[in-house]
Structure prediction request, 265 residues.
Amino acid sequence: MGEKKNRSDDFCPESEEHTDALSEEKLELMRSTGSVTSVGGRYCIHCMSIIGQVEGHQVLPPQNKSTKYEHLMPQLVAVEQSDEIEGLIILLNTVGGDVEAGLALAELIAGMKKPTVSLVLGGGHSIGVPLAVSAKRSFIVPSATMTIHPVRTSGLVLGVPQTLDYFERMQNRITGFVSANSRMDPERFLALSRNTGGELVTDIGTVLDGQQAVDEGLIDQLGSLSDAIESLYGQIEQAKKSSAKPRRKKTENSKSGSGADSQKK
Prediction:
């Protein structure tokens, strides 16, 4: 019988040529999507970054820093289906962007069974708020800020009641998602988004720093990268314990059942 191949052998090949090729592949993945799979720690985790502006159905100008949702969606599916990747960490520094694209990514992350954590760095504004709370555990650094404001658009729009009704229904979708995935009540979220107290001179809404976001129940915990990784490791270990529970009762019942059948015969 040959020795059983270690699962990590695929990530740590002995061949220098293979190692160089794998490194080039990782570098290209980081350049194009800002994502990388790390295997140097206790567990294999995938790091995904959401930066700049979340691009929607229209391509942003090349000078804009942007996150393309069509790049991240298949990555999330691959992470969820992978046997090697055991957890996902999401790094956020975004000004917001397209509502539907951001909500699509947030719903995918919230629906994952894999352990997930998010870490807000710099800013998690606008549609970045649902993305931040979509993970099973959310973190924010003390110096980061999050802007909560109502849905808006720019440019030419039809000035009819149906347009305003559409905006209101879109706002309700965002409010419902945030309140369902955080400790903040929907009423409080709407109150912060409609704040006109002069905090934002040219806008409506509220800016929360790291501590305020935690105090309001929007983010779970104040912390840094090491705190987020430790939390992710804890989720992975808990998932391993849950999947390793013994099933003796089922085995014993099946044995007793087979014995009863033999006695009847």
